[in-house]
Amino acid sequence: MIESLGGRWGPIVVAAVSAIVVAAAGAWLTTLGPWYRSLRVPSWKPPDWAFGPVWTTIFTLTAIAGVLAWNAAPEGAERFWLLAAFAVNGVLNIAWSGVFFRLQRPDWALIEVVALWLSVALLILAVGRHSGLGALLLAPYLVWVGTAAMLNWSIVRLNGPF
């Protein structure tokens, strides 16, 4: 299916569009309104302006990792499972923003971020089966989601119950 989108360019187009969709959906769900501004946050929280550049870098690296793994994986089941791993991760990435910001439930988001972190770890394993470089490119994503989880936990601890 992906090859039919343009041969060699198909995986690149799919990876780029997927990254943009996940980033846009997460950004749309992220509302920095009065509720968010009223939350007590730890002193080590990165400034709000840093999140955009960090996520842009992570999504770019993730798309590159996906293309590298796709091109190295044999056709068939291996590629299907790669796509499935990326799809699950994308859904969990978007869901965290919805739970935290739209539902205003950092406590539920804390549970969801654990699933997101695990999906990144599994994504690294899935990509690593086909591309060591691709797996390495996903390491910042794992670190950032781990940092987000610690921040999420701190916000729950400082502001709960919700």
TrEMBL record:
Taxonomy, superkingdom: Bacteria
Annotated keywords: Membrane, Transmembrane, Transmembrane helix
Membrane topology: Multi-pass membrane protein
Signal peptide: none
An annotated GO cellular component: membrane
InterPro entries assigned: TspO/MBR-related_sf, TspO_MBR
Pfam family, one: TspO_MBR
Localization in the cell: Membrane
A GO BP entry: tetrapyrrole metabolic process
Coiled-coil blocks: none
TM spans (from-to): 12-30, 50-73, 80-102, 108-128, 135-156
Family of the protein in this entry: Belongs to the TspO/BZRP family.
Protein name per the record: Tryptophan-rich sensory protein
Native source species: Methylobacterium currus
